[in-house]
Design a protein that fits this description.
Layout: E1 6-15, H1 27-42, E2 53-56, H2 67-75, E3 81-84, H3 91-104, E4 111-118, H4 119-124, H5 132-137, H6 153-157, H7 163-178, H8 182-201, H9 214-218, E5 226-228, E6 231-232, E7 242-251, H10 252-257, E8 266-275, H11 290-303, E9 312-314, H12 321-330, H13 356-370, E10 375-382, E11 387-394, H14 407-412, E12 428-439, E13 445-454, E14 459-463, H15 469-477, E15 484-491, E16 494-498
Helix pairs in contact: 1-2
Length: 499
C-alpha cells in the first residue's frame, strides 16, 4: 500500500444553541474557532502552520467576498491552494474525495476543510439568508464544483423552486411507486422522525436534542403546521442554525513525519461523485437515483467490501424521502437493523446549508476511532436529489492504495435514462407523476403543484385553480399519483389543471 494513503487526523464540530449566551461573531470567526479545535483533536502542535490546502464550503448566511482568503488571514496561515465550493449539500464529501486525490497525488500535504452557517444569529440581527444569486455575484473568488443552478425556469414558474416544495413532490412519487397507502406512508414518516430524533436527542451537537414520537411528528398542531404535503414542520430540514464543522486530512507518510498519533488516524477507503439528470423535469422517474447507486457501488468497490460489511450509515436526510431513496438504491431492506443516521439528520440534528455532511464525516471519524473494525458509509446530496457524493471510512488501513476513476470520467460512463422533453404550454390531458399541496403560514392549503406527463410522453407542470379547496383536500386524502387531469389554460406562465 502507498505511503501516501489519505487519512483524517483531526475533526471538530461546534453548535451554539439559542439558549447559549454567546453567539458567533461572524461565519469566518466561527470556522476559525472550529478549525483550531480540529487541530487540537489531531493531537500535535504546529499542525495549523503546515496546512497548504484550505477548502471552504459555500455559506448562505453572512457570506463575504472571499471566505477562504479571509479565513486564512484569521488563522494566520498562507496555504498555496484555497477553494470555495458551489452550492450543494454534496460539497463536504465531494471535497473530502477531491482532497484525497490531491494528497495521494502529492500535490498537497495537509488539507483543512471547513464550513458553517450562522443563520440563527443572522436572523436574530435582522439579516436572514442572503439571496444566493446576489452572494455569488459579490464573490471575489471562483467556485469549485458544478455551479449550475438547481431549478429549471418552468419549475420555478410553477412554485417548484425550493427544497420545501420539491422534495414533497419526490416523496409522493416515492410513496406511490412503493405501493403504500397514504395511511401506511404517514406511519413511515412518523417512524423516520422517531428514529432520527432519537439519535439527535443523544447527540451533544444537535440543534434539537429532543426525541419526537411518531404520532407527534405527523400530527398537525399549532407547533407543527403542515408545510407542503405530506411534510409537517417536524419533517423539514432546519437551516436556521449556528453550526460549524472542520476536518483535517493528510497522508500516512506526512502524519508520521509530523508525529500525529496513530489513534487519531481514520482512513478513507473509497469515495465517488456523480449527478443524476440535472433538472427534476427531465427525469423519467421521480423516485429513482442511478447516481446514488453508482457512487456507492464504486466507493464500495474501491474499499473492497460489500454493503453488508458496513456497520453504520449516514444517508443524507434533508427530507424523509432522501434516506429512503438512498436505501432503495443501495439495496438496504426496510427491516435492516443498522442505523442510517449517526447525527440525527437535518430536521433534528440541524441542516447548516451545504455543510451538514461535514458533521456526519466528523462523527464517522469518531465512530471509527471507537471501533477500528467499523466501516461507515456517508452519502451527501445537493439540490433536488441532483449532485451526489459517497465516502467510506474505516479505522483499519485499506488493503489497496487510494485510487478512483476521476469524477468527470466516472460521470461520462454513468448510464442515465434518456431525459424527457419539457412541454412548456401543454394542452389536453396530464397524468400525475408527483405532486404536493403547499400551505400558507397559517397552515391552510394554498396551491396544488403537479408534475406529470402529457399524452405524448413529455414532462409538464401545472397548478390547481386558485381557491379550489375541494381538490386540495382530495390531493391530501387520496392517492393523486396516476390521476389524469385536463389542462384548462394558462395564467401568465402557469399552466392550470382541473381534475
Amino acid at each position: 500500500m502507498s505511503a501516501d494513503q489519505p487519512i483524517l487526523v483531526g475533526v471538530s464540530q461546534m453548535t451554539i444553541r439559542p439558549d447559549e449566551p454567546t453567539r458567533p461573531k461572524s461565519a469566518v470567526d466561527f470556522m476559525a474557532d472550529c478549525a483550531r479545535l480540529a487541530v487540537e483533536d489531531a493531537g500535535v502542535s504546529g499542525l495549523l502552520e503546515k496546512v497548504d490546502a484550505l477548502h471552504v464550503v459555500n455559506i448562505f448566511s453572512r457570506p463575504t467576498p472571499n471566505p477562504p482568503a479571509e479565513l486564512s488571514e484569521a488563522l494566520g496561515i498562507r496555504p498555496g491552494l484555497m477553494e470555495y465550493t458551489a452550492i450543494g449539500g454534496n460539497s463536504p464529501q465531494w471535497l473530502i474525495n477531491r482532497a484525497a486525490d490531491n494528497l495521494a497525488g502529492g500535490r498537497t500535504r495537509v488539507s483543512l476543510l471547513t464550513g458553517c452557517e450562522v443563520m440563527y444569529t443572522a436572523a436574530r440581527s435582522g439579516e436572514g439568508m442572503i439571496d444566493p444569486v446576489s452572494a455569488i455575484a459579490a464573490l471575489e473568488t471562483g467556485m469549485v464544483g458544478d455551479d449550475r443552478f438547481g431549478s429549471h425556469r418552468i419549475e420555478m414558474d410553477h412554485f417548484a423552486d425550493l427544497p420545501v416544495r420539491v422534495y414533497p413532490i419526490l416523496e409522493n412519487a416515492l410513496r406511490a411507486g412503493s405501493g403504500m397507502s397514504l395511511d401506511e406512508h404517514r406511519r413511515v414518516l412518523g417512524r423516520f422522525a422517531e428514529d432520527f430524533s432519537k439519535v439527535a436527542a443523544l447527540n451533544p451537537y444537535a440543534w434539537f436534542p429532543t426525541e419526537r414520537s411518531a404520532a407527534e411528528a405527523v400530527t398537525v398542531s399549532a407547533d407543527n403546521r403542515m408545510i407542503s404535503f405530506p411534510y409537517t414542520k417536524y419533517l423539514n430540514a432546519v437551516i436556521n442554525v449556528d453550526q460549524a464543522a472542520a476536518v483535517i486530512l493528510t497522508t500516512t507518510r506526512v502524519a508520521r513525519e509530523l508525529a500525529i498519533p496513530e489513534d487519531r488516524w481514520v482512513y478513507l477507503h473509497g469515495g465517488q461523485d456523480a449527478h443524476d439528470i440535472w433538472y427534476v423535469s427531465h427525469r423519467p422517474d421521480l423516485a429513482e437515483s442511478p447516481a446514488i447507486k453508482a457512487c456507492v457501488e464504486d466507493a464500495l468497490d474501491q474499499a473492497g467490501i460489500g454493503v453488508e460489511q458496513v456497520s453504520l450509515f449516514d444517508l443524507y436526510s434533508c427530507f424523509p424521502c432522501m434516506p429512503e431513496l438512498a436505501r432503495k438504491m443501495i439495496g438496504l431492506s426496510v427491516g435492516d437493523p443498522r442505523p442510517i443516521t449517526i447525527t440525527g439528520g437535518l430536521p433534528y440534528f440541524g441542516g447548516p446549508g451545504s455543510n451538514y455532511s461535514m458533521h456526519a464525516i466528523a462523527e464517522a471519524a469518531v465512530r471509527c476511532r471507537e471501533d477500528r473494525d467499523r466501516y461507515v458509509l456517508v452519502t451527501a446530496n445537493g439540490w433536488y436529489c441532483t449532485k451526489h457524493s459517497a465516502g467510506i471510512y474505516g479505522g483499519r488501513p485499506p488493503g489497496r492504495s487510494w485510487s478512483r476513476t476521476p469524477p468527470d470520467r466516472f460521470q461520462a460512463g454513468l448510464r442515465l435514462p434518456a431525459p424527457l422533453e419539457i412541454d412548456p404550454e401543454p394542452a389536453g390531458m396530464l397524468v400525475v407523476d408527483g405532486y404536493t399541496v403547499w400551505h400558507d403560514r397559517e397552515g391552510q392549503p394554498d396551491i396544488g403543484i403537479v408534475c406529470g406527463k402529457t399524452t405524448d410522453g413529455k414532462r409538464a407542470w401545472a397548478q390547481t385553480p386558485a381557491g379550489d379547496a375541494d381538490v386540495l383536500l382530495a390531493m391530501m386524502t387520496e392517492e393523486w399519483v396516476g390521476k389524469a387531469g385536463r389542462i384548462r389554460g394558462r395564467d401568465g406562465r402557469i399552466n392550470r389543471i382541473e381534475f
